[in-house]
Every structure is written in C-alpha cells, then in structure tokens.
Amino acid sequence: MSLADLPFPEINAVLNGTATLLLTAGFVLIKQKRIAAHRAVMLTAFTVSVIFLISYVAGKIARGLTMFDGQGFWREFYFVLLISHTILAIVIVPLILRTLYLAIKGDYARHRAWAKWTFPLWYYVSLTGVLVYFMLFQWFPHHQA
Question: Most buried residue among 22, 26, 116, 145 by CB atoms closer than 10 A?
Fold first, then answer.
C-alpha cells in the first residue's frame, strides 16, 4: 500500500466536517460562558484543522489534482465556491494563529475582538471544504489531472 492508496478526499471531508461541528460546539459553549469546555473544544478544532492541512498537502502530493467535470450553472457555482474557499483558507491561517495566541496569553478582550472575524471565516472554510468534497467526489463525475 502506498500513500496514493489512502482515501485522502474522504479523510479530508471527515476532518473538515469534524472541525465544523467542533466550531459549532465551541460557539455554543462560549455563549453559555463554559470557558474551559470552549477552550478544550477550540483547541481540538485547531488540532483537527492542522491534521486536515497535513492530510490535504499529502494527498495533493500523492494523488495530484482532481478536475471538476460539472457543467453549466454547477461549474460556475463550484468555481466561485472553490475560489472563495481557497482565498479564505489562506487568509484564515494567520487569523486563527493570532486568535489562539491571544487566548493563550490571556488577553481575552482582544481574543474576543479577533474571534468575531476569525470564527465566521474559519466556519465558512470548514463548511465549504465539505461542500467542495461532495461536489467534486460525490455529486459530479471527476478525473485526476
């Protein structure tokens, strides 16, 4: 068995879906002022997202690019989704790191201010990652580049 034999798309979709659920739980927990639980869940979401990033890069190295073969409206929709997802996936990394750093440092006022931007963008990236997976591997035919 080689690295290329691993089901990277499925693994990545599960990791993104898990991150989305953890982000949802973290949001609910902080609204309930359950700070310790919020911290644990958000650190887990961060860890899952790091594992996703490693898996995503490994999958691209091992298997290459996958081409989207949908047509018409769905092709346009997919590429708008993919472009916004990709740009925000790049933007979100330093935002997550800064927000996490402020929490670890104990600067909760600034952490909250950064989290107001970080959370919705991170949530969007995680959720659209799952949607990209379904569009690319489940709903439309595809082929490797």
Answer: 26
Looking up residue 136, the CATH number of its domain turns out to be: 1.20.120.80
Question: Which residue in 49, 64, 70, 40 sits closest to 130, CA to CA?
Answer: 49
Query: What would the pLDDT profile of 45-100 be if each residue is shown by its tens digit?
Result: 999 999 999 999 999 999 888 889 889 999 999 999 999 999 999 999 999 999 99
> Comparing C-alpha atoms, which of 62, 65, 54, 57 is closest to residue 2?
62
Q: How many domains does the chain have?
A: 1
Q: Which residues pair with 144 in a beta bridge?
A: 66
Query: What is the distance between the alpha carbons of residues 19 and 123, in angstroms, rounded to a whole number?
Result: 8
Prediction pTM value: 0.90
The band of 140, judged by pLDDT with boundaries at 50, 70 and 90, is confident
Range of the domain at 138: 3-144
